[in-house]
# Entry
Amino acid sequence: MTPGEPLIRGDWLLSHVGEIALRVGEHLELTVIAVVVGFLIAFVLSLAALRIPRLYAPITWTTGILYTIPSLALFALLIPYTGLSLLTAEIGLVSYTLLILIRNIVAGVRGVPAEVRDAARGMGYTDRQILWRVEIPLALAVIFAGIRVATITTIGLVTVTALIGQGGMGYFILLGIQLFFSTALIVGALGSVVLAVLADGALVLAQRALTPWTHAR
Amino acid sequence: MAERRGATVELREVTKSYGDTVAVDHLSLTAPAGRICVLIGPSGCGKTTSLRMVNRLIEPTSGDILIDGQNILREDPTQLRRRIGYVIQQVGLFPHRTIGENVATVPELLGWPAARIRARVDELLSLIGFDPARMRDRYPAQLSGGERQRVGVARAMAAEPPLMLMDEPFGAVDPIVRERLQNEFLQLQRAQGITVIFVTHDIDEAIKLGDRVAIMRAGKLVQFAPPGELLAHPADDFVAKFVGSDRGLKRLALLTVGGAELDPPVDPSRLDGAPVLSPAMSLRDALAEMLASETQVGMVRDGDRYLGVLTLSHIGRLLRTEDRP
# Structure
């Protein structure tokens, strides 16, 4: 950092509004794709684990290992196959969402009270109707808790994907490091945090709208 | 409400075994149409297993179950369950659905038109003493235990089933609420003529609600009789013990003052302090009032008519004569 220069330079911010907006958009896009694709994969795997309980251990074991691989290492491993691409970024991001999402979907469905399931079956719901009309809706609160954690984690991880040329707020962090320029560094880091907080808030609101019974008094 | 008749349920040599354990052992009994048939016995006697075989939540190992002569083991279980009401102790209301949506469950599964469902929901909510406009859109968590239990009964009755299965439906509420729910339920059941198979471990509940009571032990039917007969002539020591050493008193609860022999009226001035009894009163309540008074007798009046005098020896004689088979 050049001595005497302020921590944040307002003129730089003003002249880069367009670029900041672009990077925010990239960041959100990378996050949404990762969480949506991750959720779809996790949902299918969870249904399999719920139907065939002995699949649950190998599924959580495998996704647990994926979760522990350092993100930089994972990208480095993928680059020879998928290059410096969006696909490389998303493979990494998606694999980090799976463990938390699967755990919460399965726990949420298993947590449905036995008497509610018994009443549903006793009134003539088919297994499929019990899953879609009773178990999934009642598991929503726990599932949403998983989506929130997955989303926040992903927003943090997306900053790393700048290293493989995918933009996002990580771009400013890299820029700040390379140029010894604190304004860009702060914009990148703070921007990522603000995005995470806003995304979490939006998910809380979405959950409240989808589960009106949890807060009716 | 349209007059409907309940279904007749017949169990023929029904057996359920889990490996070497026999939960229900060649059970045969007929639940008559429009009546309440109570299954009772100690824990593990097979009463709940028997109940759950009637809507095939449990599949019998052998034997047949017939509803109005139709063998239900040849039916699709899901379709079968939609025409049988089902109420359990923990109620099992759907927490994510409003009271109205809960009650509408089976009519919706059966594809009733929306207007008919709505009318039926409001009718049922009124029947269980709710203001439909006020309660329809609430969630189960906003109700008391007794209210939830009422909704459970309404939900089971929604599609006008000819048969209801109830597994200790009033077991989880306090005694005062339980008594009120039992009375309301009896009225509903009588008005709608539904056949009910009712599981309980509470002998007083069985005597109060049952038209027929089946006492089970270790998967076998020990005695199947109207409650009065069960109390008067227990089939064996097990039944006698199960109905309790106060079975004489319990029988009195089933008999009324009007059914007892009376002494001719005497001058009321000689009966100072004697309780006034009505013919509709149970002999048990009459006895309690008589014992508490100085005279130990009761003056029986039907409105303005003075019918006679009830004495302790009349009550004793009634119990003794009814005891003889």
Q: What stands out?
A: Residues 175-192 of chain B form the longest helix (18 residues). Chain B has a mean pLDDT of 91. The CA atoms of residues 9 and 31 of chain B lie 5 Å apart. Chain B has 14 helices and 13 strands.
